[in-house]
C-alpha cells in the first residue's frame, strides 16, 4: 500500500485533513473532509496513519472517521444511485 499515493489521488485531501485538525475537528465551523477524502480516510490502515500523521496518531484516525461518518449520515436519503 502506498499511503501517500492513496491520499494524493483526491485533490487537496491532505489539506482538508490538516484544516480539519486545525479547526478542532469541525468544532470551529470548518466542517470536515469531502466525501471523496472521507473514503480515503476510512481506507487507510494504522501503519499509514502512523507514517503520514505521526504527531496526531492515534487520536486522528478515530476522530476523522467519526466526523466522516457524521457527514455521510447527513446526506439526504435517496441521493445515492
From TrEMBL:
Q: Which UniProt keywords apply?
A: Signal
The keyword Ubl conjugation is annotated on this UniProt entry: no
Pfam families (UniProt xref) = Prolamin_like
- InterPro entries referenced in this protein's UniProt entry, alphabetically: Prolamin-like
One GO BP? regulation of double fertilization forming a zygote and endosperm
Name any GO cellular component annotation.
extracellular region
Domain Prolamin-like span(s) in chain numbering: 2-55
Which parts of the chain span the membrane according to its record? Answer: none
Q: What is this protein called?
A: Prolamin-like domain-containing protein
Q: What species was this sequence derived from?
A: Linum tenue
Amino acid at each position: 500500500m502506498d499511503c501517500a499515493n492513496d491520499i494524493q489521488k483526491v485533490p487537496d485531501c491532505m489539506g482538508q485533513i490538516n484544516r480539519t485538525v486545525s479547526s478542532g475537528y469541525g468544532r470551529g465551523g470548518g466542517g470536515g473532509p469531502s466525501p471523496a477524502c472521507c473514503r480515503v480516510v476510512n481506507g487507510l490502515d494504522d501503519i499509514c496513519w502512523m507514517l503520514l500523521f505521526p504527531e496526531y496518531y492515534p487520536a486522528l484516525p478515530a476522530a476523522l472517521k467519526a466526523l466522516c461518518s457524521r457527514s455521510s449520515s447527513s446526506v439526504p436519503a435517496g441521493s445515492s444511485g
